[in-house]
Amino acid sequence: MKILISGGASGLGEAITRALAGETTNTVYFTFNSSETKATEIQKQFNNTVPIKCDFKNREDVVNLRHMISTLDLDILINNAFSGQPIKNHFHKIPVEDFTTEFQNNIIPTVEITQAVLTGFRKKKSGKIITVLTSFLLNTPPAGASVYVAVKAYLASLVKSWSVENSKFNIASNSISPSFMLSNLTKDVDERVIEQMIDSHPLKRLLSFEEVAEAVLFLSKASPQLNGVDIPINAGTNIK
Ligand SMILES: NC(=O)c1ccc[n+]([C@@H]2O[C@H](COP(=O)([O-])OP(=O)(O)OC[C@H]3O[C@@H](n4cnc5c(N)ncnc54)[C@H](OP(=O)(O)O)[C@@H]3O)[C@@H](O)[C@H]2O)c1
Question: 108 CA to middle of ligand 1, Å?
Fold first, then answer.
């Protein structure tokens, strides 16, 4: 399978790239922004991977990626990249411009990439989209995360529209909602808060990238009958 993952050189994305590249019949195209060294390491280790520089804040990068997508004959798209910090400030203190910026930096590039991919999927009547959301959408969202959670809620809605509009073309759109993981995105979370999270966690340990990558691997091989669903990866907390 030919797979494109955004933000596939670091954090959770790196684990997903490595898990998918471990299957030698896959070709994994992965975008990176700042993690060029890691991208080169991955490419050296797996000769079925292709790094692509794409900064979501750079118009030219996104336009180039859109054009490249039309030549790749992809089977799977994984929307993983996120640009920004999840915890900012209480809602009433966040400058209004931050909402526009986060939308522009995250939603618009994802929309453009997904539109380009779907054009190819619809022509060949097959394809899968897997989008990384957050368990903050299911659990009680932490204070200060309103912009991040709103961006992910917007994506969650798109995931369903992609599913409804494309299921008859044998295209599945699903999402995963992982709970807290230690990554660059969460590096500023206070040590004591992390200790509390581990202490109150049912398994007494935080979720690892590899555990989430396993779920993505499963979705990458799943039947198109599995469509329009979200898989929470939160150790059974806040089951609805
Ligand atoms: N960590 C958590 O607790 C958690 C929980 C649930 C869901 N998630 C989701 O998991 C996904 C991966 O996050 P992570 O935890 O692995 O954090 P991360 O290590 O910060 O990963 C963010 C990814 O996005 C890419 N990225 C950042 N800025 C970008 C930009 N301007 N343009 C294009 N790509 C950019 C990064 O690429 P470079 O490294 O190359 O810059 C990186 O691969 C995100 O969608 C996040 O919302 C995370």
Answer: 16
